[in-house]
Amino acid sequence: MTTQPPIPQAENPARLTGLKLDEPYVVAAGMEAVAVSMKTVYEEAGVNRGLKALFKLNQKGGFDCPSCAWPDPDGHRSAIAEYCENGAKAVAEEATEKALFADFFAEHSVADLAQLSDRDIGKQGRVAEPMYLPAGAAHYQPISWEAAFDMIATHLNSLQSPDEAVFYTSGRTSNEAAFLYQLFVREYGTNNLPDCSNMCHESSGVALLESVGIGKGSVTLEDFYEAEVIIVMGQNPGTNHPRMLTALQQAHRNGAKIIAVNPLPEAGLMGFNNPQTLKGALGMDSQLTDLFLQVKLNGDMALLQAIERLLLDEEEKQPGSVFDHPFINEHTEGYEALIQHLRQQNASKLAALSGVPLAQIQEAVSLLKHKSKIIICWAMGLTQHANAVDTIREVVNLLLLKGSIGKPGAGTCPVRGHSNVQGDRTMGIWEKPPKYLLDNIKARFGFEPPHHHGFDTVEAIRAMHEGRAHVFFAMGGNFLSATPDTQFTAEALRRCRLTVHVSTKLNRSHLVHGREALILPTLGRSDRDLTGGTDQFVSCENSMGVVQASRGVLEPVSDQLLSEPAIVCRLAKATLAGRTRINWDTYEQHYDFIRNEIAQVIPGFRDYNEKVRQPAGFYLPNGARERKFNTRNGKANFNVALATVPALSEGEYHMMTIRSHDQFNTTIYGLDDRYRGVRNERRVVFMNPKDISAAGFTPGEVVDIYNTTDGKERVARTFILVAYDIPPRCIATYFPEANVLVPISTTASKSNTPVYKTVPVKLRKGEVAI
Known about the structure:
Layout: E1 20-21, E2 28-29, H1 31-45, H2 47-56, H3 85-95, E3 99-100, H4 102-107, H5 110-114, H6 118-122, E4 126-127, E5 131-133, E6 141-142, H7 145-158, E7 165-169, H8 175-188, H9 202-212, H10 221-226, E8 229-233, H11 237-240, H12 244-253, E9 257-261, H13 267-270, E10 272-273, H14 278-281, E11 291-293, H15 300-317, H16 325-331, E12 332-333, H17 335-343, H18 347-354, H19 358-368, E13 374-378, H20 380-383, H21 388-401, E14 411-414, H22 421-426, H23 435-445, H24 457-465, E15 471-475, H25 479-482, H26 486-494, E16 498-503, E17 516-521, E18 538-541, E19 546-550, H27 564-575, H28 584-589, H29 591-601, H30 608-611, E20 618-619, E21 636-637, E22 653-658, E23 663-664, E24 667-668, E25 678-679, E26 684-687, H31 689-694, E27 702-707, E28 714-723, E29 730-734, E30 759-765
Helix pairs in contact: 1-2, 1-3, 2-3, 7-27, 8-27, 9-21, 15-18, 15-19, 15-21, 24-26
């Protein structure tokens, strides 16, 4: 009788690593950030390899940062360092010389690797050759590329319907690979193209499409330098988009007032020491925020409506002095309905709902009422609530009232958290493809793509769990650790016949697998790409719609790595053999041929090969930037919605998941969150000191966090209470350790984004894990 291997652990182990607490920082970056960056790069990649990568990171002619999507300056770029601490850490992780070949997997079973934390799994190194996990096996074993593609093709072609396969995409995938990937998937016959956008900025895309006709921001980097007021909402740029701090600092020097809205007084919101300036290096030039509004979790819509209500009072005192009526009359619809709604609102009640004192809201109104060059930035602190779409439409309401869109120094700025996640959507990675894309594909390639909507991320998890999807293919990412309801998602993946991950490094998703599993190792952003015998480059789109080239410079750690475009081409040939209408060999031969196709299918990419070779790339068309609103009525549309915050029962708290300063998405660089004063530990709960006392706990006590949404108990075990400056009845925990508590059933209206930021939970005494 054969003994089945143990089921690999889906969650991070509930082990404590030794918490040490310091005072939280009030200023981000400085020389400490430089020292940490260099130390990390040298330890992972070595001095020569590390410096070679850093000197080309975000430079013209170099490669695009694999971390966030903040734009590079169009003109001059720093020769010292056009990157931030977390960008350097991301490159260090990718540029590591640690390579995992078959001997590593022979020595370490899947179950043993799953006992490691996500950090320690990632620190093992780059996957260096294709690996296969047979049904019932305990260890991955080597497989040839040809055999791997034949196996995937056999599984895909044995399905009763193409809709029984799921094709996920991570934000790091290049434009070229993303275009080929969606083209293959649609020729195969499905629109099951969930991506990481579904979990982060999907709410932004839905809201902006309805309001202004384009699901992207409307500002450029230059607009920051002309702005009069910049509002940063639900965002921690010091950790998640550190290069944004340079733009905010320059805007502040130019006279802009900065309003920060967040439940936590993050260091990167309050101050910034730019280590590339003398004053910054000496800690003498740090102030950023002029007004900090500490909002409750999900209190943002109430805050915005309170501001609008008070602005309306000022407008009615002096008609025409506060609202931009010429703009409103010419370019918008729904103004009267919004005004009628605002007149029915009570500013004091809205203030109480938001958690921000009315006097502070009045300060914000004073800064805004006579200004029109206003930029509002936001990230997941707004997008991951049940009412996220209406909240973001409320952001647009405020900008429309002020005429603050489609002019220099003003507009919408959703800040993308992953390099090229915006470009992937532009390339057609979307489960709800627009008609023009399908029509263009048919006209160019001669096949009829499917028109019915596919699965988004949440729907894909449900389909796998319910046996409606049997093959899961991931182009990058760490799907299990990124998604909600960790145990439910693990069960869904385990019910698949085959799970496939195109990856650079080992991660937990390789260890929670289907009946059979494959890991296909690919080149990273920093790797030199000699596909087709020619030095290739790819391209990416940043948060502000600039498309630019990315050329890797490092020798790959293994000669068995394939580029993402090559993987897609070979997968397509194996799967669609004898019935494809596309010459996939051509695209693998040279990526210019891919870009020629993109130019004919995707709007805005005419003469792609010529424009992308410009040193700073090129801007894509953006109607909202020019006050051309591609909506149902050709106008920018106001929205009317009631501001609400989910009610809590006795003993409940709203939990939000956040990143530490030592991580990027699911990649954990280390155990320090130094800006928040947390060292050597990730299993912590940030909690208001009065709440800790009222609940009968003490700081430093170990608790379990749990909820019973849908009548099912979900538990995150062994977390340490940390007293912190956070609003009452609100707590914060790190992602992905607390993702097990995020119910698959609770999602944002219209966008179906999981609600990572308002999870109802309770606490109970826990046991210390060794």
